[in-house]
Amino acid sequence: MKKIYYGENIVTMEDELYTQAVLIDNNKISAIGNYNDIIKLKDDDTKVIDLKEKCLMPSFIDSHSHITALAQTLLTADLSNAKNFDDIINILKDFKEKNNLNSNNYLIGFGYDHNFLEERKHPTKEILDKVSNEIPVLITHKSGHMGVTNSLGLKLLNIDENTKAPDGGKIGRTDITNKPNGYLEETAFTNNSKKFDNFSMDKIIEAIKKAENIYLSYGITTAQDGITKEKEFSILKTMSENNNLDIDIVSYIDIKNNKNILEQNKDYLNYINHYKIGGYKLFLDGSPQGKTAWLSKPYEGDKEYKGYPIYKDEEVKNFIKTALNENIQIITHCNGDAAAEQFIKSFEALNPKKNIRPVMIHAQTVREDQIKRMKKINMIPSFFVDHVYYWGDIHLKNLGERAYKISPIKTAIKNDLIYTIHEDTPVLYPDILESIWTAATRTTKNGVPLSSDEKITIVEGLKAVTINAAYSYFEEDTKGSIKEGKLADLVILDKNPLKLDNPDELKKIKLLETIKEGKTLYKNN
Questions:
Q1: pLDDT, tens digit, for every residue of 323-350?
Q2: In-domain check, residue 470
């Protein structure tokens, strides 16, 4: 069926920012233009929709998140509202009882943040032992970069006082005995947490369907799986083969341990039933709020500690050389400016002739001198700008003056970089409009303004999550704007975000409908 949408608030995200009418034919945008011209194209089966005051625009494109991780968190205990250790204990016990977990299971929780607990520190194995001495317990920090396990969990992982921490990670120890205290950081956590595999493929597929609906409820029709390993790939490939995906999902394959996935599945470099491999993923450091991001200067209050890298320079060059030789995109986690430097320098040293559109994920403390160099090597910063609001006060404490310049989007714009913004879901839910609000206001939870020079306009924010995000996926010819020939991936909002009196009104906008390839997949009733 053909559809014609018309109204005064159709935002194209092209140079000609507005159009009066749009014709959808099957899954694509067939024509745009003046109402009188477009209405002549209708036939007896065409549905004509008057938008009235509502706004039609391209659907949002998630430029970095972890849809399979979001799905798994839907199957775990939610610790995001825990205010202290007792809350963590009670939430986990309640989850254990409701789900009838026993010694044949694992008990997993997600979303605590030591920065906001009354104790202002991570719990230990002794705290989690109060939950259970019969079931291995693992809780994951909100950042996903660290976590804690109980005594039985340490036993499961074969971690004791003689266990050496892996490169790029730390094992928490007691001050006196050197025995592990249950805390695991970076590679010590990420390498071990996968052993707490509680979920069948059927359960995760069911959860991914729920996760898709979460993305759709925020107007997103293209989502990312930001670090895909064997299990995640097997699940997403199965869903693709069974034509069981509604939104487009782009995977980035773990280049360190799972490079074979891409080598053996090159047909997935193009979409098959809404699923494709976008390239490789690499981690270079950790989390600024967890004080594991790798900085060029020490953390505030520390004389020497700057965080730490995961890889040596030569290793990073070899990873990037692999991507360049295969002409495959690589996206790389860099929170600290030292990690950003390692990524940029590695590209500069290799002097690439191919434009693989490398992406610097998070780019939290990237400096202006580095941004100027990123332009020369076609590197795209993808900013986790929500840090300004959610962790800005923590960054002021950890980074001092440097915190004012976190997520320097306006500097990227001034230097003519393609840029995107993201929510790193499941760290935060993929609330695109809230991210644009944060980028436009740059105020912390406690009301502290962070560098007004880095504020962006609403249209600049919308570009980050539409046309720019499409470019970051090499999909600018098919997505990201309302243009003839592109996919009919659209959202309908109750108000036009470009006609608001101030950015605070962004938080009041309601998403009414999400359309993927001409088909309504989500409606807010």
A1: 999 999 999 999 999 999 999 999 999 9
A2: no
Tokens linked to 151: 């005594």
Distance CA 91, CA 456 (A): 39
If one counts every other C-beta atom within 10 angstroms of the C-beta of residue 259, the result is 15
Q: Is residue 182 part of a domain?
A: yes
Per DSSP, which regions of 234-319 are E strands?
Answer: 248-254, 275-283
Angle, vertex CA 304, rays to CA 316 and CA 398, nearest 5: 85
Query: Does the residue 244 lie in any domain?
Result: no
3-state secondary structure at position 323: helix
| Distance of alpha carbon 214 from alpha carbon 350, whole angstroms | 40
Has residue 454 been placed in a domain? no
Instruction: Give the range of the structural domain holding residue 126, as residue numbers without chain letter.
Output: 76-193
Helix residue ranges, H only, 242-336 = 259-264, 313-326
What's the token pair of residue 269? Answer: 């470099």
**Cα–Cα distances in Å, from 359 out to 182, 282, 415, 450?**
34, 10, 16, 24
Q: CB under 8 Å to 34, separation ≥6 — which residues?
A: 20, 21
- Report the domain count for the chain: 1
What pLDDT, in 10s, does the model give residues 126-146?
A: 999 999 999 999 999 999 999
Q: What is the CATH number of the domain that holds 152?
A: 3.10.310.70
CA nearest 409: which of 357, 358, 368?
368
Residues 6+ apart with CB under 8 A from 313: 342, 345, 346
